[in-house]
Amino acid sequence: MYFRGPAVGLTFCSFHLAFYLINKYVLSILKFTYPTLFQGWQTLVGGILLHICWKLGWVEINCGSRADIVAWLPASAFFVGIIYAGSRALSRLPIPVFLTLHSASEVVTFVVQRIFYREQSSYIRLCSVTFLLISAGCLPIHDKQFDADGYFWAIVHLVCSGFYKVFQKSHKSSLLSDLDQQYINYVFSVLLLAFASHPTGDLISVLEFPFLYFHTFHSGCCASGIFGFLLMLLSVKLRSSLSPAHHLSWGFLAKVLTAVMSLFVFEISLNVPLAICFLACALGEILRVYTEKMGS
């Protein structure tokens, strides 16, 4: 276990890096900004791979009763909001900015749990949430590449992510496992995004996409779907085999690696205040890991 844990964690970090770099390349460099088709294709690939692994006996999926599935559908709706808004935001924002705003979803989770579930929190977690909020709130002020639409969709993304986490925690006693939940998410997403592709105009607009890029786009979407699926499997593996603090530690390392490596691949106007925002977010994440470690 001591040898397998680090190997799985490092593989998780590698897939996290590849997933975001590929997505950013397709959305920003190729400028394929049709999120219903892009995310629909990704979730279709992920759903097919998960179904194949289930039929081959490599993973166990038991979606339970119809009542369990129906009860999980609101979370699936938040999942669609996460991936749709995430694509819109990532196409316009640098990866470090996007990941910093994504980390602020913990603020939404914290507020909802305090208001609606009356959960008590330690001062360390409060400090963690404060740093995450400050880092995300100061980004628009110091971002020389400020994009209003990008930040708008990033806010939608982090709000959906925060509510999804709350919903997931409130269903811990459910008969649905993490893979069951993800399988339902995949099916729901494919169906919803397929129906939404025409009203949003994506299905028509894609005909104007340069034909020269089509093979690159398909390769990028397939690779993104595969890496996203493997990333999900490894995340489930880490969550089930490690403590919450260790799982969060690997997630934090993956974000740092992805943010740093993206600086060498994509252009970003980095300045001192922006770097301080990133460091404040990192400090908030570290305090979050420490909070989980003290609570375990």
Q: Could you please describe the fold and organization of this structure?
A:
- This protein has twelve helices and no strands.
- It is mainly alpha-helical.
- It has one domain.
- Residues about 200-210 have low confidence and may be disordered.
Could you state the order of secondary-structure elements as H and E? HHHHHHHHHHHH
What kind of sheet is the major sheet?
Answer: none
- As a percent range, the share of strand residues is under 5%
- Residue share in helix: over 70%
Radius of gyration: 19 Å
Task: Characterize the overall form.
Answer: globular
**Please, what is the average pLDDT?**
85
Low-confidence stretches: 201-212
Task: Summarize the helices and strands and which ones pair or pack.
Blueprint lengths: L3 H26 L5 H21 L10 H25 L4 H9 L1 H12 L6 H20 L5 H23 L7 H19 L5 H4 L8 H28 L2 H19 L9 H24 L1
List keywords for this structure.
296 residues; mainly alpha; 12 helices; globular
Brief summary:
The chain has helices at residues 4-29, 35-55, 66-90, 95-103, 105-116, 123-142, 148-170, 178-196, 202-205, 214-241, 244-262, 272-295.
